[in-house]
Amino acid sequence: MQFSENWLRTMVNPKMTSDELSHMLTMSGLEVEEVEAVAPPFSNVVVGEVLEVAKHPNADRLNVCQVDVKTGTILNIVCGAPNVRVGMKVPCAMAGAVLPPGADGKPFEIKVGQLRGVESQGMLCSARELKLSEDHGGLLELPDDAPVGQNFRDYFLLNDLKFTIKLTPNKADCLSVLGVAREVSALTDTPLKQPTFQTVAVNLDEKLPVKISAPDLCGRFAGRVIRGLNAKAATPQWMKQRLERSGQRPISALVDISNYVMLELGRPSHVFDLDKIHGSLDVRWGKKGEQIKLLNGNTVEVDEWVGVIADDKELESLAGIMGGDATSVSLETTNIYLEAAFWFPQAIQGRARRFNFSTDAAHRFERGVDFATVVEHIERITALLIEICGTPDTKVAAVDDQIVNLPKREPVKVRTARATKVIGVAITDDMIADIFTRLGLQFTQEPGLFAVTPPSFRFDIEIEEDLIEEIARVYGFENIPALPPVAASEMKIAPENVRSLFAIRHLLADLDYQEVVNFSFVESAWEADFAGNQAPIKLLNPIASQMNVMRSSLIASLVANVRYNINRKANRVRVFEIGAVFHRDAQVQDGPLEVAGYHQPKRVAGLAYGPVADEQWGQDTRNVDFFDVKADLEALFAPRVLRFARVEHPSLHPGRSAQVELDGKNIGLIGELHPRLQQKYDLPLAPVVFEIDAAALQQRDVPAYAEISKFPAVTRDLALVVKQAVQVQELRDIFAAEQQRNAACGIIQAIVLFDEYQGKGLENDEKSLAFRFTLQDTQNTLQDDTVDAAMAAIVAAATGKLAARLRT
């Protein structure tokens, strides 16, 4: 938001300097990004009048001018401007004037001198020479009523500053000079002078038929017919100045007046060429396939998500965004339809960005524009139109104001005690009442409680905290003392049995995995393929049409990372991600980190693809397999022992996958990607993936002292013949159960599978599994009979429960 300080001070003029005003605005939440002079410094330039113009005797392109500057002496000035003429009024730099620096960066001083043999006692200036604009086509021509001899800086109001403020999205009420003036008035307790004007008398009985077919798009629509205007009338210099100093380029009187009132009062409006409207207007939602050519020259296609204003033949405007080219005004326009409306912010939000442009109107309407002053603002525009473009034939019709659906302003309550606690200073009822009065907020009061009805121009007051913010802003953030925290700062020691996610990241990095961070929203097809989830949690407003659901698994994103790297010639990929997944769960209630109905656990997932190690001379090249990643997973949990059980999962190979169990609980899964998905996602090799609960991995056993045996260990190998369907885990479970049950087996320290055999000497449905047992006692050297007893118990347990037999 950019505006002229002089313009602001016509509405509110506090007794403070420009620097103090800038600081106050910034400290109240209206951050002043820049304060810039509207013109560089120059001196001794006055308004001059050209009395005579004669050709230079020694130069074809120069003229000798007689210029009156009301000093009692007519100045003789040589001028080469093509537009100089008798009677025009121009800025005149007299001898001794210092003009803004030129290309060399040095100030330009005007001196009396000879130009081709003729004395020149000054210089007539263009806008470019005074650094007012880049226009150098001729002299800067001033209006006929410009007072000759007056200091040009005073006449042109150049002792002015341009303020650029950075507004937060909730401060839409300050997107106008009047809005900023309201703030300054409240902050300084200075009277506010709103723009005044005379209501134009109605002398035309005509109304353009308008229908509001979409009350959820437009709550109020007002317009009037005006005939007999002169669109070629020049925009007044004062209006051009204010527009330019607010970042607007003057175009034509009809457009400039509409833009001026938008900057002045914050209300965007639109001027239609009445003669180009076909029949009546209909305010409605668009229809798929409809097109409109806009004022910026773009032709866009609309659908049911975009509001439009249409006549009986075609679309005439994108509602609240931009007018159409078909009914645009020109210098030949004589009859207009002036429109102003209230568009619901949610019906405008995002529409302009969809078409890859932004407009001042959309910027304001999507944040909220005053819905109570539509007619008053139309009257303001009308008064300016008649003043600037009016003719003896101008006729003005009555305002057609249609109200169909206005926002309800529910009272918002604020407690004095709550405000005191949040702000941290003693706030009284009288102080709050004074602040609300200065802000123009209507309220009812009880001891310690206020009920405030938000004004029609404030869309940012909805809850108690919004009112507390207003109290703090007007009270002054600088007036709130800086106090140390009441509670003592104390560093808490993290529990030893819990490790942080940061530590887990280090563990995975040590295992040669690299971390990736992916979006939590994914394609719905990924959810079906990798999680078997046919009813994922859908997003209301996805950032891209295909990324429209929340992920319930991390695996799909890791596979996408692998594809990205393979497409860039990477043949070895090891990545991991730690992030949240999202599941429906009716038992979850709202909380500081929870949303009712949705469970959001943290998961740790990893993926390995390609060779086990980079190519080297020290080991043969082979591709990573299930057992490599299983070993990584066991290393992550060590010394805790994992159990792996066969599982069927839609994204994993049916024979090379398992669920991961810890202390009898299922904490995740591991496996090779399903061949179907490998083919679908065009992967030359099948990656191996795992996904586990982060909470389970964060838990760890606190180290405890255990006596180290001083006696030698004994190893025994045991080969058992079992059926092909028997899994190794089943034998491991039997061995573990026997260790717990039988005291004789307590000396068994470790069990390792070191061989699997199938073939000669065994039936077709049999296999031999060879285990190495490490046995050791902490009190004595083991004797053969003790070892034999333990091994016999192990063999008996396997034989009895799985019908296993010793291999001979």
Summarize the structure.
The protein has 808 residues and is an alpha+beta fold. It starts with a strand and ends with a strand.
Proportion of residues in helical segments: 10-25%
Question: How many strands, what sense, and barrel or not for the largest sheet?
Answer: 7 strands, mixed
Strand runs, count: 41
**Number of helix segments?**
21
- CA-based gyration radius: 41 Å
Query: Which strand-content bin applies to the residues?
Result: 25-35%
Outline type: elongated
Describe the structure.
By secondary structure, the chain is an alpha+beta fold. The strands form eleven sheets. It has a seven-stranded mixed β-sheet, sandwiched between helices. Strands 3, 4, 5, 6, 7 and 10 form a six-stranded antiparallel β-sheet that branches. Strand 8 and strand 9 form a beta hairpin. The mean pLDDT is 92.
